[in-house]
Every structure is written in structure tokens, then in C-alpha cells.
């Protein structure tokens, strides 16, 4: 079992979660952040600052979710080597929402996740999946490509 704390928008929330987790030291958890660009969580702090705050024993993995795929590789690279936690990512489709029309804008999302998934793996992610508006087929494509490219030693 694992507690997935996800779509965290700010450093203060990560710090609060880590304080709470310290009261339950036998409960493993991951912290996953929602990001607005290639370096920052949605509130504006750097992902690196948030990952540093997650340096508590029962947090076993950190990363990003519900974030456009184009930002994932630079985000992962910004924290690779700064933590001994597993890195994870499960981005959204990257589509843009038109609030006035209340619809997703066609042609604004990623059409294939396989190639980006290789980049995310190369950037250090070891837990890779999909979030909002990704499909089981997207996740299957990522798994297929990652399995085929892995060194089977």
C-alpha cells in the first residue's frame, strides 16, 4: 500500500503533507506536483524547492502529474540528482481548455506519448503513466516503448 499525494500546487501544501506524514512513519507515500512550466509548480515555487521539502523517510517517490507533457523533461532534469527518491511522472494530455466555450481545443494536445516517455525515462523517471485526458492506449504505448528500449540485464 502507498498513499499517493498528487496534483500538489505549492510548497506550503507539500510541507503540510510532510508534517502529517511524519505522524505516520510506517505509511509510504509519494508526492506529485502540478506544474505550470518547465521549472515551477502552479503556485510559482520551483519544483526543486518542493522536492527538497519532501525529504522525509516515508516519502518514497516524488515527481509531476497533471502537467503538460512538454514541461516534464525539464522538470525531471531540474530535480534529477538532488534526491534519492524515485522520480515519477504521469502528465496530462497537454490539451488546452477553452473556459468560455467550455470545451477542449482540438489539436492542442500530445498525439503520441511513446517518444516523450523515452525522454522522461532518460531524465530519471522510473514510474511513468498518464493523468487527465490520457487513455489506456496512451499508457500501453508508453509501456511498450519503455519495455522495448530497456536493457534486459
Task: Report what the structure shows.
The protein has 153 residues and is of the alpha/beta class. It has a single domain, classed as TIM Barrel, CATH 3.20.20.330. The chain is built from five helices and seven strands, in the order E-H-E-H-E-H-E-E-E-H-E-H. It has helices at residues 11-22, 47-53, 69-79, 114-122, 136-149; strands at 3-8, 29-33, 59-65, 86-90, 97-98, 103-104, 125-128. The strands form two sheets. It has a five-stranded parallel beta sheet. Strands 5-6 form a two-stranded antiparallel sheet. Strand 2 (29-33), helix 2 (47-53) and strand 3 (59-65) form a beta-alpha-beta unit. Helix 4 crosses helix 5 (136-149). It is globular, with a radius of gyration of 16 Å.
Describe the structure concisely:
This protein is of the alpha/beta class and 153 residues long.
The CATH architecture name reads: Alpha-Beta Barrel
CATH superfamily: Homocysteine-binding-like domain
Give, in order, the helices and strands.
EHEHEHEEEHEH
How many whole angstroms does the radius of gyration measure? 16 Å
Mean residue pLDDT: 94
Amino acid at each position: 500500500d502507498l498513499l499517493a499525494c498528487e496534483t500538489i500546487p505549492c510548497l506550503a501544501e507539500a510541507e503540510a503533507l510532510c508534517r502529517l506524514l511524519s505522524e505516520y512513519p510506517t505509511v509510504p507515500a509519494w508526492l506529485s506536483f502540478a506544474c505550470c512550466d518547465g521549472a515551477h509548480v502552479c503556485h510559482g515555487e520551483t519544483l526543486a524547492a518542493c522536492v527538497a521539502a519532501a525529504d522525509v523517510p516515508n516519502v518514497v517517490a516524488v515527481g509531476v502529474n497533471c502537467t503538460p507533457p512538454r514541461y516534464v523533461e525539464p522538470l525531471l532534469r531540474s530535480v534529477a540528482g538532488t534526491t534519492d527518491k524515485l522520480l515519477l511522472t504521469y502528465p496530462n494530455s497537454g490539451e488546452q481548455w477553452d473556459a468560455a466555450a467550455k470545451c477542449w481545443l482540438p489539436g492542442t494536445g500530445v498525439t503520441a506519448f511513446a517518444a516523450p516517455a523515452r525522454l522522461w525515462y532518460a531524465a530519471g523517471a522510473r514510474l511513468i503513466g498518464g493523468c487527465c485526458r490520457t487513455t489506456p492506449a496512451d499508457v500501453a504505448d508508453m509501456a511498450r516503448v519503455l519495455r522495448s528500449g530497456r536493457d534486459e540485464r
